[in-house]
Structures are given as C-alpha cells and as structure tokens.
Records
---
Amino acid sequence: MDSRSVDTVPHTQWRDWIALRAVRGVGNVTYRELLERFATPHAALHAPVAALIDTGVHPTVAQAISTFDQWKAVDVQVEKLLQKSVRLVTRGDKNYPVNLTHLHDPPPFLYVRGTLLPEDRVAIAIVGSRVASSYGRGMAQALAHGLAERGVTVVSGLARGIDGEAHRSTLMAGGRTVAVLGSGVDVIYPSEHRGLAEDITKSGAVVSEFSLGTKPDAMHFPYRNRVISGLTLGTVVVEATEKSGSLITARCALEQNREVFAVPGPASTGRSQGPHRLIKEGAKLVETVDDILSEIAPTLVTRPLIAPTSPPLTLDPDEERLLGVLDGDPIHVDVVIAKSGLSAARVLELLLGLELKGAVTQLPGTHFALTSNGLNQRKKRL
C-alpha cells in the first residue's frame, strides 16, 4: 500500500482506524500486515474470515475482526478527538512521519495536537537525565538551538531536565519541535510542562500512539522511546545513568538503523556513565552541533531558520536576588530560603512568580532550577 497517496484522512474514516486497533490481538505488526493486504482498515474489518486467516492472522483474531461490534465506544473516542481539537494522523495521511514507515512495527496512527509536516523527516532526538546538571542543560540548549537554526526538527519526550531544555531552546530559536508522550496527548506529564506543551503545539506537535485519557504508566515509556528514535535520523544522549530510559531510546535507534550520538561529561558523575558507555560501544562523540550536522549533512534543510531574540524578563529586586541564588543545578527550597535572606513565604511567592514567567522550573523533592530563559536573564545581569 502507498501509505502517503491520500492527502488527508477525513475524521469520518477515523472510526475504522480506531476500531481495527481496538480488536484484541491486533498489534502494530498485524495492523501493518492487514494494511498491506487490504489497503484500508474498512476493507480489513469487512473482509471474510478466510481472507483474514490467509493474511497470516490467527483464526481467533480473524473472527474478532469480522465480528467487531464496539462501534459505540469508538464513536465516543472520535467525538472526544473533535472536542479537544486532536487529529488522528494515519498511515493514509500525507503528513504521517515518513521515518516511522521504515519501522518493523510502526504505529498505524498517531494522536496529534499541533502539526506534523513532511520536512519533519529531517529530525534529531535529544534525550537525557531528568535531574540534569547545569552543564547538561547548557549542552542540550546549545545543541537544540544549533539544530533549529539549520532547519532540523528537534524531537524529545517532554520530560523534566534535558528533554524540557531541548524543547524550550528549539522554540526560542524559532524552530520546530515534536514532543512524544507515554500518555494520551490530553494527559501532560509532568504537569508543570503543560504550558510548554501548549507552546510546542504552535511550532510543532505533541504526539502519542496512546488514546486520549491514557495515564503515563511506566510500561508505556519504552513504546514512546521507540517512537522518539523512529521519528528521527539520529538520537543524542545528554547525561544519563546506566539505567536511564534514554539508553532505551539509544538502543531503539540502533535497532532502527539510525545514528546514535553521545555527549561526554565528567568521569566522576553518574550522569556521564550512560553517554560514556555509548561512546565505548561506537556512538559518535558530540562536543558541538557540527558533530551532528556532519553526519546528517546529505539530508539537511539548506535554508536556516532565523533565531528571534527573546525579550528580557521584567523582574523586581527580590526576583533578581533569587536569580543570583539559583542556577542550572537543582537546589532545595530550604537552601534557596537560607541563601536569599528572605522569609519562607516571600521566597515561595517569588518562585511561583518566576515559574509563571518561565524563568524557574520546579523539580521533584521541592527542588528548583533556572530554565534556559532564566539562565539567559541571569547572564545578562552579571
């Protein structure tokens, strides 16, 4: 089947795509095989049982497809998509990511807020530690900014730490970024990234293969990681322990025959263990964005994006005092209070205000750190 022959699949056909995926036993591989044989979900749903079995479908699954009767539940899903302005981008849509079509088990469709474009095929993933150092955050920012300037779409997972910095820096550079979730696109995790997710939908897309309302269960993230790497030409790992989920994304990239890049760090920190292991195993060492660009040069977009300058934040003296206390490394709120010389109530009020202004992010365990925007504002005041 030429999966890109149809410009856009109308929402009236979404119910067939959702229904076929809802049949017990129809996973991504079986779905792909059914599309190769029958061309559309509608044809597969109405095919004789014998024809389905002839495709290689197990007789029990073939019978379940032929007798599917959960149309009311499917219609409820379609109605929710329309209500929440979420699109179903299917294998029959011209904007279905071409890089995913090369996978053994591509999602038959993605739930999308925002827009996916054909030029997003020139994409690089940047992933890493959720509790990143100032060095790691700075590297993620610099790499994302440099890629965005060259018209490369930056893909990540909207997690705290490296992921968030990659998305934010891409947006600040005026580039396109895609966030892949391990939950429904209406369930933003972590919750403090709701504003960031909304910004991403205006300059890219928030996507998931999980239906609306799906919670961010741990079992979903390996599937999400494979989509992150599958959307791209290569994956960059910036800070990761040896048990980090970022290494799962790197392994997926290798299995998908994509490039793997790793940013080295201080040998004394656990966050460097993951990237260093990848480098030992053959990943390309990355010090600057040019190390990535040289590998993907044949597919680069030739016209770079123009990076807008971010307007300075308007801060009162107490907020500026907190900027001097915070940096890119997570600091516990008690330490912030002690170093600021302000009352606890005043510090909490200021931190909330700075978070709303996009200068500060709250991390697990009541720790706080400056965002890339906050770091830039701090540098301007030094």
Note: The mean pLDDT is 88.
---
Amino acid sequence: MRKWLVIVICVVALSSCKKQNEVKCEPAVDAPFNLVLPSHFPPIEFPEDNELTEKRVELGRRLFYDTRLSADNSISCGSCHHQASAFTDNLSISQGIEGRVGFRNSPTLGNVAYQERLFAEGGVPNLEVQILAPIGDENEFDHDVVIIEAELQADPILNNLSRIAYDRDIDIYAITRAISCFERTMITGGSPYDKHVLGEESLSKDALAGMELFFSEELACGTCHSGHNFTDGGFHNIGLYEIYEDAGRFRITNDGEDEGKFKTPSLRNIEKTYPYMHNGSLQTLEEVIDHFSSGGLGHINQSELVVPLELTALEKSQLLAFLTSLTDLEFLMNSELSLLN
C-alpha cells in the first residue's frame, strides 16, 4: 500500500511540475512588441485599440498562414503574398480557391503599415477591415466568418492566444486585428539604396546615375514615387490603355475624371514584385521603363506628368540599376515573417 502511495505522490508531483513548466513557457500575459524602424523612417501611427503586442503579432502571423480562412482549407493570405517575392505572388492575376481567377495583381505588403486607402482603387480604409474583402470574395476565400470563428475557437492554441491578446475568444474582431498587427511588422528599409542614404555604403556607378535620372525634373519619377516608401499614396492614370476594362478609382467615386486612375505602388523591392500594373500586364521592369519612356497611350485622364521621354538605352539601363538597388534581401529572408512550424 505504501509503495502505491509513493507512486501516486510522484505522479502528482511530476504532473504539477509539468504544469508549472508549461505556465513558465506560456505566461498568460502580453507585452508590447518591439518594432524596430529604420532610422530614416518616420514613426508609425497605430490604432488606439490595436497597439502592437507580442501575442497579437504571434496570433496574426499564425492566422496569416492559416488555410482555414478559406472555404476549402486550401489557401491562406500567404498563398498570394510570398515573402521571397516581397509578399506578392508573381502572377498577373492572383488565384483563389479551386483555382478561381481573382480581380487584380497582388500588391506587396512591405511597409503596408504606412499605407492608407488600401487596394488599387483605395476602396478599403484601413488594415483592420482589409482581410474581410478576400474572406467574402467568391473568387478568393469565399468563406463565412461565422464558420471560421467556430472552427478557430476549437483550436486551443489560437483561442488561448486570442484571450491573452484581446481578452476574448477568437472571433472576427480578433482575427482582423491580429492579422493587421502582423502585417504592420513587415518593415522593409535595408536595401543598398537605404544604406547609401545612411552613408553606410555606396551604390554602383550605374545605380547612382539612375537615381539622378529618377529624381530629375525632366523625368519626375520621384514626384509620384516619393518619400521613404516611394509612393505619394495618390491615384493616377498613366495612360496604360486608351480604354480601361478596370475603371480603377472610378469604381469608388463614380467620377469620370477618376477612370483609369490607380494607387501609386511602392517601388520598394520592385525587382521581386513582377509582373507589374494593376492587372500584371507588364512582365518586366524593362517593359515598365519602356512604357513611361513612350509617354503612354493618351487616355483622356492621363496624368500630365506622363510624357514622351525618349530615353536612351544607357539611361534605361541606369534606371533599371537604380530600381534594383531598392531590393532589401534582409526583408525577404526575415525569419520572424516566415511560416510558423
């Protein structure tokens, strides 16, 4: 009898120690997330109800790669936003469940924390609500948030993270906010260009010449592709077509002057985010440079900044060298942004 009593006491003690160790490994507390910004970047303004914390970012990272957000459990956010491609998918038009063809080319998520009016036509006001669009779109996730909530609440890991991060069982409120927290950690600012700006290293001779061309008054590329993120956040018609099948900003404003206008994309990691334009119609950066050199096709709403440039072959190669200097390899390989095991 005493022998069995000793065994029971030992089992209870071991169980208690195991539970204590589990608590130490996974404390039911949260802490601010230490988001390190490049020294030449401005601060980020976070929503008051969704400041970055460690558990919110961890929950968001798991959800970003979770295929249960799609109706047939086949795709996730990460399916159209690959880290090695600066969180694009290198398809002209992205695909949803069952190979359904979507509406547009997937944009990069690099520095999305600084963006306002998301999507190419600016139809989504902030990151917190952005994920609702692909979830409900029949050509993307085509899913029901009620079903998603029920399935994820049965996942003890995700539900526990949600309780710590948002003081509630995981639901659409926590899902949308956690994913946006994770996406705000996708900071890219360590390219050769950035190191040149900070005086840490110099660009190649061709890249320097291309940078001078890019910011020159004659080319005026830097007028729209301005600031630390190489975008003015505005909407412009660049004369890609004489007749646009996708009306762009017009779909939101119903203003004829907005037909064919699309949001200025960031040029960061542009070498990796091919193909280009809202519909992926230009496959290479060389084609993009050729388009702007030609002056566009003359749509009635075409920006006055898009004019024939008649660039020489040398100038085109120099611009290309500058654009490739915006590739941030550290960002493309950052393990904190990768798929969790």
Note: The chain has two domains: 37-188, 192-329.
---
Amino acid sequence: MALAEVPYEASADAAAPTPTPTTRRANILDPGFDLTLRPMRYPVFYEMYRDAIKNTWTVDEIDFSDDLVDLDRKLLPAEKHLINRLVAFFATGDSIVSNNLVLNLYQHINAPEARMYLSRQLYEEALHVQFYLTLLDNYIPEMEEREAAFAAIHNIDSIAQKGEFCFKWMRSVNGLDELHTDADRKTFLLNLICFATCIEGLFFFAAFAYVYFLRSKGLLNGLAAGTNWVFRDESCHMNFAFEVINTVRSEQPELFDEELSSQIYAMLDEAIECEYRFAEDLLGQGVPGMSTADTRQYLQFVADQRLAQLGLDRAYNVRNPFGFMELQDVQELTNFFERTVAAYQTGVEGAVAFDEEF
C-alpha cells in the first residue's frame, strides 16, 4: 500500500492534537523577518509594489544630443556652473539613499509586502545612479574634471555638508540590530522621516527645480526628460515612506509625541539651511531669473508640504515662488496618474499634483 494511503490510527489514550494558531506580529516595527504573505497584513504596500513594476523606464531611452549642443553654445557661464554643481551632487545622492535603504529600512520594516516594495525601490535607485553616471559621462568629457565631479562629496564644501547631514542620520541608527524599545523606534522613525522629508523630499526636489528652471528656458531637454521619470520614482518612494510612518502611527500612536515633533521641525530647519548653502554655491555666479531669496522661500514651501504630509502644522506659511514648477506639463508629467504614459516602456496610472507634492 502506498504511504499516502495508510490511514492514521490515533492512540486510544491520546488526546487529539490541538492546532496551534499561526502567530502574527502585532506591529510593523517588531523585530524579526516575517515571511508570510498570506494573510496579507498590509496590502497597500503590495499594491505600491505592483504600481512600481508598471513604472518602468531605462536610461537608454534618454536622448542627450540636444543637451550637448546647449552646453556648448547656449548656456551662460553661470548656468554651466549651476549644472556642474548639480550633476556633482546627483553623482552621490541616490547612492546615499540606497545605502540607507539596505542598511536600515529593509532591516527594520517587518512586513514582507513592504520589503517587496523596498526591493523594487533599490532597483530604481540603481537606475537613477546609472542615469546620473550617463549624465556625467555625456556632460563632462574631460576625464579629470569628471573624476572630480564623482568625488564632489569630498572636495566641494556645499556638497560635503549635504553628505554629512545624510550620514549623520544614517549613523543615528548604527548599532540598532532590533527595535525593542520606544526609544529605539523613535530613533528609526527619525531616520525614515529624514530620508523621506529632507533628502528625497527636499534635497532632490530642490534639484528638480533647477532642472525645470532651465527646461522653462528651453535648455537641457534630455536632462529634464530623465528628471521627469526620476521625479515620479521619488514621489512614489516618499509616498511609501509616509505610508509606513502612518502605519506606525496607527499601531503605536504614543511614539508621535511632542518630543518627536520638535525633533522633526529642527531636522527640517537644518536641512533647509544645508540646502540653502548649496543654492548659494549653485547661484553664486548670478543666474538670470533665479535668486537665492526665492530659492529659500521655495525650500520653506516644500518643507511645509512635508510637514503637512506628516500631519504636523506648517512652519513657514509661504507660497511657491517658482511658477515654472507648476507649468512642467510636458507629456510625461501632467496627467501621470490619469492616463497611460506612452513615454514609458510600461505605462503608469496615478496622479501628481504639484501644489501638494512641491
């Protein structure tokens, strides 16, 4: 008789075994590696992962040929300085985000569906790094100058300061192998909030503004086209982070006390000052149509948007001084969430509202 056909005979004096229910973790920041996708605790993260898969593009689709003409013939010296500094920051910015994702976020966000999204985000960060690598290879033909750009975080003060701000918050969770106490979880939350609001949500969005300013003047269309796609990716990364934050808030509202709020406000103040010093460097040679005063106001406007997304009161209450940010409706951006985007290899459905995100 085959093994599968042997009937089970219970011992006469043995009680029937009582099924042990599957233990489910109570909170998303509980230590460990939950591997169970069914029943799914956080389907929103799985849907974000599925949406991200639809949001697929490649660097090979970007045409830099017009940009090279602009760099050679159209950009003013001050605009060239702006671009050189900007691409130097791009060379390391997404690599920093990738390292934090791998070293900190993946370790402590304990939901398999959320880790699926983080895996996809890591791919997108690598794609951004490839984009900026290709950008520098096209924009800076001189090898020595190119090497200096890649090492900007070590030799350009305004970029080094931004890097140190990022590394400070990465180091803040060093040694936290697991999040056992409320203090541990607050420390992790501040890291997550920093990367969502200050780095991806402020530093990168300031960089986008410089790109779209030049785009509004008809310059560097290849850079702007690639930035459109990076912008969408970064918006999705932020939305994911804010969803994790909201999940933690619903599970452990006691973590979101006045002390945490004060730390967030102080963090954003520091990020604005850091980014403003970078702006002074970029615009220091006098770029017509863009001032450091307007840039500071724009940074404050963006910071207020981030505070609102965190459920906190706005701190600056200023308007967006950059009207061109609301006019970038060039195919890839305007109806991003309202139609299939032909420019993507795989279309995306969803929506970007400039008045909310910027």
Note: The CA atoms of residues 207 and 337 lie 23 Å apart.
---
Amino acid sequence: MKVLLIEDNSECADFIIQGLQQSSFQVIHSSDGLDGLFKSRTETYDIAIIDIMLPKLDGLAVIEEIRRAKIKTPIIVLSARDSVESKVKGLEIGADDYLSKPFSFSELLARIYALLRRSGDVTEPSVLCLEDLEMDLFGRRVTRAGKNLDLTALEFKLLEYLLRNKGRVVTKTTILEHVWEYGFDPKTNVVEAQVCRLREKLDKNFERKLLKTVRGFGYVLE
C-alpha cells in the first residue's frame, strides 16, 4: 500500500513515516503543498494524509486541486485546528476524514484502515498470531496455548504493536510514540514497567518465552 504524506513539520512527519513503514506501508513524503500536489498528480496512491498549514500552498487548496483533477484517492486531513468550521470545510472540499493534532499513531492507523476498507482496497486482519499466541482484534481477546490472558487495555495495545512488528526489535521511543499518546515524555520509565507486567502474563507460566529484551536496543516478540 502506498501513502502520500504532505506534512511540513519534520518531527510529525518522521513519527508518521516510521509508524507506517513498520505497518508495511510505502510512504512518499512531501514537505510543501506545491510539491505534494505535483506528487499527487504524477503517481497513484492508496491514501493521502495532508496537513492544513503548509508552505507554498495550503492543504485545503491542495485537496481542492486534487479533487478538481478527478483524483479519487481517499484523503485524511491533519490539522492543529480543531474547530467545527475547520473540519466541515475540509470535508466539504473533498477530504474523507479529519484528525486533529496531537494524535496517537494507533488512531491514525485505524482511520487509514477504515478508509481502505470503505474503498475495498484492504481487509485488515482480525487475528494476529505468533506460535501458540493469538490475539482476536475484534473480540479483544488474547489466548496462549488456548488459555485466556487477562490483559488491561494498555497491555492489549502494547501486545498488538509488538505482534504487528513480530521478529523486529522495537525501541522504547517507538513504543512510546505508537502505544502511548503522541508527544509522551520520553524520559519516563512507563515502557519498562508495562513490558514487565505484560511479560509476567505472557511468559511466566510457559516454557517458551516470546517477549525478549535486546539490551541497548529495545524489545522483540519472536
């Protein structure tokens, strides 16, 4: 799946790009409206994520030009403006969804999948698996070797992120960005504490240990 991201804030763009690439999306990034509009016309994308406040050409104008060119790519608007009028304007000119900053990556990803399902381009998996571990995303249920694991909402979210990246080492910083809210204080030790609690439920009563610490790098589920 190919995503066009038009976002001039480098920190926000890096946050989105990293998360989408880890979720197996190809991301084409533009940092201004004119270049973004050019890219929208020269390649085909499965979805576009467009910020409102852009240099050279603002996001609303970019969306208007995209729709005027009869390009039907689903569009998610990003903006620090959260007024009703701003949201209505974005949707009226052709956007399909609107997400106010700051936001969590998990919410953005959920909105992307919702738009792709609506357009018939993708079916999001309902179950994530690793060996004898199964996560039912719709039923919000996790089992290992057929035994139910009683997870909190945050533990479920953390395990989902690790399962989506199984076999890959994820750092404390990326976990903070994708499991907790965007902009969460990176100096906190909440990741270590939450991983410890999750490991207690996930591995303690099983001979095969799935959640591992890679010292100096992060964590991996394998």
Note: The chain has a mean pLDDT of 85.
